[in-house]
Amino acid sequence: MSLKQRKLFASREFDFKEDGLFVKEKNLTNSSETVISYEDIAINNLRRRSKTDNLIVVVTVLFGLLFIGSFLSKIFGGEADWSVIIMALIFTLFGSLITFINNKQEVIIPLYSSGGFILFERIPTKGEVDKFIAELMLRINTYLKEKYAKIDHDLPIEGQLNNLIYLRERKVIGDDEFSRLKETLLKRKNQSEIGFR
After folding, report:
1. 172 closest CA partner among 47, 46, 44, 45
2. Per residue in 46-99, pLDDT tens?
3. Are 124 and 29 in contact (CB under 8 A)?
4. Among 36, 78, 158, 180, which residue has the least CB neighbours within 10 Å?
5. Angle 65-71-75 (CA atoms, 0-180°, nearest 5)?
6. Which 8-state DSSP code applies to residue 112?
7. Which residues pair with 111 in a beta bridge?
8. Global confidence as pTM
9. How far apart are CA 31 and CA 175, in angstroms?
């Protein structure tokens, strides 16, 4: 599964790899390709952001009201000037276009190292973006479990216990699974017995 997003002059592509997320970004001035390790993605800390420039919205509404008032005045025999009506219409349309372009609904997924990456929340659709996020979370958890949750009785207990604590802190495993894995780890047979039977 991959996710392709385009908005005006920017495009982003996200593809799953075996040990990370491949991200390709392009805009008018540059392009980049990176692979972000699943360990570095703080998927549980994602946040959604909606941005609109309120000043432009207010100015657009005011010019829209001026246009409607002037136009209705002219229709009902008032002395409104056509140049005022046309200018109010132009500013209303221009303000609406700027508001549309600057309106951002994004999902910000931080990284543990620094920074993060951004998904457009509704491109191509909100459902597809949510499905992609759910798949990303599943792949991260699967990758981390395969790497850190395997119990090996030949290795020292302390390192494996730290791995289990790490998985619980990252919310990859819950308290019940942590307790079960910890119990399995601590029940190993002591292989350093010396003596005769």
Report:
1. 44
2. 999 987 778 888 999 999 999 999 999 888 888 888 999 999 999 999 998 888
3. no
4. 158
5. 145
6. S
7. 41
8. 0.73
9. 43
